[in-house]
């Protein structure tokens, strides 16, 4: 920025005036050896020249010998200035260093309406404007008492449940709220045409409400007969529906059991083929990341189990897309856990594993790939007696912003590789 364009209480000393922008020096620097001062910003275009010259004496100078003039800077900040709103009535004066702080509270400074109505006004009038003039102010509805935006009052009255209306059937009822009108139309108005109460039983008679009493009295026997037939038909239909629902429940339960068995067989088959290395494919990555950040999806995501070697230690991986602990909100976190396995009773315990976590680079040219790798060595692990929570790993494995780079997330899919090395082979 160029110099300070403010109103001083007295004439500005020429020693404090920038020779380029001709106003008070801002962040002054001094050229040596000539000693001339100018604003730091004003000097920058001159420094772009191969052989910069002082604009006052036209002498060449060495850019490396330009220094901030802190003493001059302090003197300028102590100069007395007037508020820029003096002509509007502000009587404030004070050191230049306080002008910006004053502008933030000056009663005569122009600000925008906090209710975003588009009006600009002096700060001292904001309260009055917000309470009595702003089209976005809240005002009570004269009928229901609810607070409504002033500019939307006409729309509110179209749906206000307490707005008075008259019966559309012209029965003479007036000053009905919309709530009472519904009750009036459904239960009271004698001029509204209504169906017979036995319409579900097959009676097709319709007439004004005041005629319905005579109809009910003269057709009682036929109504009861039709109602009896309806009840019997509905009972048969209900029995049929109950049988269908029971069959569907049994079929669904059988499907669930079959799917669980198939899924477990697939998981076990995949796990037993592992050799201490597991690659986890995470499709639909961006949606899963957004669900994790918003809390819609539980964390961590748990992988299928895998084994360190045939008939070896059973492992599973965990992924916190929104991070955990110190990585929460900015990183993704990964971890591994030893699970209860089928062969634990014949394996050596405790174990001393070394974990390696790798985010795989998906560039086509394998020579240019730059995988991201982290290592973690937990303390010795005893034989698990039950599946526990996921153990520690890399809490700040990869920044969420970095993982979205095209070479790591391709076709909205990422690949994570987990390696387990046992220091003491079984």
From TrEMBL:
<dbReference type="GO" id="GO:0007165">
    <property type="term" value="P:signal transduction"/>
</dbReference>
<dbReference type="InterPro" id="IPR001293">
    <property type="entry name" value="Znf_TRAF"/>
</dbReference>
<dbReference type="Pfam" id="PF21355">
    <property type="entry name" value="TRAF-mep_MATH"/>
</dbReference>
<keyword id="KW-0479">Metal-binding</keyword>
<dbReference type="Pfam" id="PF02176">
    <property type="entry name" value="zf-TRAF"/>
</dbReference>
<dbReference type="InterPro" id="IPR001841">
    <property type="entry name" value="Znf_RING"/>
</dbReference>
<keyword id="KW-0862">Zinc</keyword>
<dbReference type="InterPro" id="IPR012227">
    <property type="entry name" value="TNF_rcpt-assoc_TRAF_met"/>
</dbReference>
<dbReference type="InterPro" id="IPR017907">
    <property type="entry name" value="Znf_RING_CS"/>
</dbReference>
<dbReference type="GO" id="GO:0042981">
    <property type="term" value="P:regulation of apoptotic process"/>
</dbReference>
<dbReference type="InterPro" id="IPR013083">
    <property type="entry name" value="Znf_RING/FYVE/PHD"/>
</dbReference>
<feature type="domain" description="TRAF-type">
    <location>
        <begin position="156"/>
        <end position="213"/>
    </location>
</feature>
<dbReference type="GO" id="GO:0005737">
    <property type="term" value="C:cytoplasm"/>
</dbReference>
<feature type="domain" description="RING-type">
    <location>
        <begin position="18"/>
        <end position="58"/>
    </location>
</feature>
<dbReference type="GO" id="GO:0008270">
    <property type="term" value="F:zinc ion binding"/>
</dbReference>
<dbReference type="GO" id="GO:0043122">
    <property type="term" value="P:regulation of canonical NF-kappaB signal transduction"/>
</dbReference>
<dbReference type="InterPro" id="IPR049342">
    <property type="entry name" value="TRAF1-6_MATH_dom"/>
</dbReference>
<dbReference type="InterPro" id="IPR002083">
    <property type="entry name" value="MATH/TRAF_dom"/>
</dbReference>
<feature type="domain" description="MATH">
    <location>
        <begin position="275"/>
        <end position="420"/>
    </location>
</feature>
<protein>
    <recommendedName>
        <fullName>TNF receptor-associated factor</fullName>
    </recommendedName>
</protein>
<feature type="zinc finger region" description="TRAF-type">
    <location>
        <begin position="156"/>
        <end position="213"/>
    </location>
</feature>
<feature type="domain" description="TRAF-type">
    <location>
        <begin position="102"/>
        <end position="148"/>
    </location>
</feature>
<dbReference type="Pfam" id="PF00097">
    <property type="entry name" value="zf-C3HC4"/>
</dbReference>
<dbReference type="GO" id="GO:0005164">
    <property type="term" value="F:tumor necrosis factor receptor binding"/>
</dbReference>
<dbReference type="GO" id="GO:0031625">
    <property type="term" value="F:ubiquitin protein ligase binding"/>
</dbReference>
<keyword id="KW-0677">Repeat</keyword>
<keyword id="KW-0963">Cytoplasm</keyword>
<dbReference type="InterPro" id="IPR018957">
    <property type="entry name" value="Znf_C3HC4_RING-type"/>
</dbReference>
<feature type="zinc finger region" description="TRAF-type">
    <location>
        <begin position="102"/>
        <end position="148"/>
    </location>
</feature>
<dbReference type="InterPro" id="IPR008974">
    <property type="entry name" value="TRAF-like"/>
</dbReference>
<keyword id="KW-0863">Zinc-finger</keyword>
């Amino acid at each position: 920025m160029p110099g300070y364009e403010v109103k001083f209480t007295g004439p500005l000393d020429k020693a404090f005036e920038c020779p380029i922008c001709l106003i008070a020096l801002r962040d002054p620097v001094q050229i040596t050896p000539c000693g001339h001062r100018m604003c730091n910003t004003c000097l920058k275009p001159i420094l772009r020249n191969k052989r910069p010259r002082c604009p006052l004496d036209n002498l060449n100078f060495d850019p490396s010998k330009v220094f901030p003039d802190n003493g001059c800077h302090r003197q300028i900040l102590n100069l007395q200035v007037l508020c820029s709103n003096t002509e509007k009535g502000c009587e404030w004066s004070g050191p230049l260093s306080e002008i910006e702080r004053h502008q933030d509270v000056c009663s005569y400074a122009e600000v925008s309406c906090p209710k975003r109505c588009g009006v600009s006004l002096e700060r001292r009038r904001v309260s009055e404007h917000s309470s009595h003039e702003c089209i976005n102010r809240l005002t009570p509805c004269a009928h229901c008492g609810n607070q409504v935006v002033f500019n939307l009052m006409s729309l509110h009255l179209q749906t206000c449940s307490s707005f008075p209306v008259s019966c559309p059937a012209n029965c003479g009822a007036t000053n009905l709220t919309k709530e009472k009108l519904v009750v009036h139309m459904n239960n009271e108005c004698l001029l509204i045409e209504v169906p017979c109460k036995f319409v579900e039983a097959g009676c097709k008679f319709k007439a004004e409400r005041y005629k319905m009493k005579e109809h009910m009295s003269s057709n009682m026997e036929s109504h009861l007969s039709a109602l009896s037939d309806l009840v019997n038909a509905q009972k048969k239909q209900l029995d049929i529906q109950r049988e269908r629902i029971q069959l569907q429940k049994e079929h669904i339960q059988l499907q669930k059991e079959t799917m669980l068995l198939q899924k477990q067989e697939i998981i076990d088959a995949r796990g037993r083929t592992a050799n201490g290395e597991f690659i986890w494919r995470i499709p639909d990555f961006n949606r899963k990341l957004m669900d994790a950040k918003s809390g819609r999806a539980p964390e961590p995501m748990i992988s299928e189990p895998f084994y360190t070697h045939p008939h070896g230690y059973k492992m599973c991986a965990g992924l916190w897309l929104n991070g955990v602990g110190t990585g929460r909100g900015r990183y993704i976190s990964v971890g591994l856990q030893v699970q209860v396995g089928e062969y634990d009773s014949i394996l050596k315990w405790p174990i001393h594993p070394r974990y390696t976590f790798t985010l795989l680079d998906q560039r086509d040219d394998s020579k240019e790939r730059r995988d991201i790798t982290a290592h973690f060595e937990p303390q010795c692990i005893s034989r698990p007696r039950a599946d526990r929570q996921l153990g520690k790993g890399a809490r700040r494995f990869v920044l969420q912003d970095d993982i979205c780079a095209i070479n790591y997330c391709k076709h909205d899919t990422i690949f994570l590789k987990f390696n387990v090395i046992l220091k003491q082979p079984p």
